[in-house]
Prior knowledge:
This protein has 603 residues and is an alpha/beta fold. It has helices spanning 14-57, 148-154, 180-190, 211-216, 235-241, 281-289, 305-308, 316-332, 353-357, 424-444, 465-469, 489-494, 523-527, 533-543, 556-568, and strands spanning 139-141, 161-163, 166-168, 201-205, 222-227, 246-248, 263-269, 290-299, 335-341, 344-349, 455-458, 476-482, 499-502, 515-521, 544-555, 571-577, 585-592. Strands 6-5-4-7-8-10-9 form a seven-stranded mixed sheet, with helices on both faces. The protein has a seven-stranded mixed sheet with strand order 13-12-11-14-15-17-16. Belongs to the methyltransferase superfamily. GO terms for molecular function: methyltransferase activity. Its EC number is 2.1.1.-.
Amino acid sequence: MKYKDEKPxxxxxKGFRALPTTILVVLLCGFSFYLGGIFCSEKxxxxxxxxxxxxxxxxxxxxxxxxxxxxxxVSFPECTIDYQDYTPCTDPxxxxxxxxxxxxxxxxxxxxxxxxKECLVPPPDGYKPPIRWPKSRNECWYRNVxxxxxxxxxxxxxxxxxxxxxxxFPGGGTMFPHGVSAYVDLMQDLIPxxxxxxxxxxxxxxxxxxxxxGDLLDHKILTVSLAPRDNHxxxxxxxxxxGIPAILGVISTQRLPFPSDSFxxxxxxxxLIPWTEFGGIYLLEIHRxxxxxxxxxxxxxxxxxxxRWRGWNTTVEEQKSDYEKLQELLTSMCFKMYAKKDDIAVxxxxxxxxxxxxxxxxxxxxxxxxxxxxxDAAWYTPLRPCVVVPGPKLKxxxxxxxxxxxxxxxxxxxxLSDVPGGSAGAFKHDDSKWKVRAKHYxxxxxxxxxxxxxxxxDMNTAYGGFAAAxxxxxxxxxxxxxxxxxxxxxxxxxxxxxxxxxxxxxxxxTYPRTYDLLHLDGLFTAExxxxxxxxxxxxxxxILRPNGYAIxxxxxxxxxxxxxxxxxxxxxxxxxxxxxxxxxxxxxxxxKKLWYSSNSSSS
Length: 603
């Protein structure tokens, strides 16, 4: 045996081993070139003929099997008939628990978990499918909103009038007895920007039955009509029954659920908000949500006090003092008088930085808000007695800088840069994606795009892409951005769309039966770690109209469990593929059934 009688050499014989190694390397190189030649010569043939077979044998990452979440069969009982207009977070049954100072009892006060209802809110006796748009703007079924009080109190002001089985809406109001159209015409004479697409979004505080917002739709101005759940019973419910955008809310001690510098116009027509009290804190909130260069319109006390004071149960001296105080407050907040005629006065929020710079001087009221106060924080955020100064870096967010409608809808807003990962490219991609999705949705749900669907909510939008994709349809979209998600709502408003912040662990600020279509995209994937799916779906059932629809775009993981709960709510659902047919994501298309309460009275 080798090395048996002698030790092996520690240094190999170079002459003996170098030659075979060299030959081996040459042979390997030659063989690799040979294989490469075979591959290249057959490449086109291989790709053309066998790539489909290869894709079948090698699973795509998108086709990874998702083990779904299963849930036991559930069935929800009916709520008693006295819950037919139940608004959980603004429930009159709970008002006595909260203070009357500054009407704080009208703000959101949601019930604790152990008091949440796990029942289905019934419609009123005799409920009918709502009248379709645009006819609904002028009339609705009395049995759908059966409130005699508002009819008796406001019929003399032409708010509404009961006639047979219907409520009719003549278009009148406290400050426009000759009709809302004549009122808007006068306003347009004072504000020419309402005619050319400059003004696109508006908010109407103390909206009545939303006739102002309804008329502005003819002028391509989209209005959020705002009113509390007060002694008028159902201002917001009337608005939504008519097919006009509206939300429950009140300016009291907390900020309104909207970002700063968003609305192009704000309006108050004898809305009874004490603008000059509490240091003008309510005016400061209007200033916060109004875009630089935006307009604040006031009609009613103390405007035109010289001719109107006798009808206001006051003296001319008191009204004069009120008007002067209002002027002083508005000037101190960098508003300037823009126009005034008869009962209408218009102020414009300044875009001039020199005015805002003066607010940082000592002993100035109201002062400039410090940097610790986030301008867009608006979910249970207290009102602050300071001026939110428009950010100096946002040069293109002023009313005169934003593109006019409809061009602004598809232009990437400047505030996109404040969103993590936000860019013009991402915005364009999102815009294109939703055009494809909306087209697919219309195939799955043919009523979408017709007058069968008017009031729509996108429950967890990013940039308002879905709303933009259906902008030419006879509907409007309330875009909801989670209070826990990235702050994209300013982008929504900069596009000329409307929306609100919300936390889906709580009830939404609206009446039951107010939306025709609810759309969500991965909401349960994003929020199920915080919010119980069951309560979110029960809230969806509360606000969805009988015979209304839901498009639930979700991970396959949640689809079965959502469908199980939906069945327990008397919904009919079917599972559909997405536009790209991927297995990890599905679409549930659901319809809420119309049913009537078996309880004739409260228990």
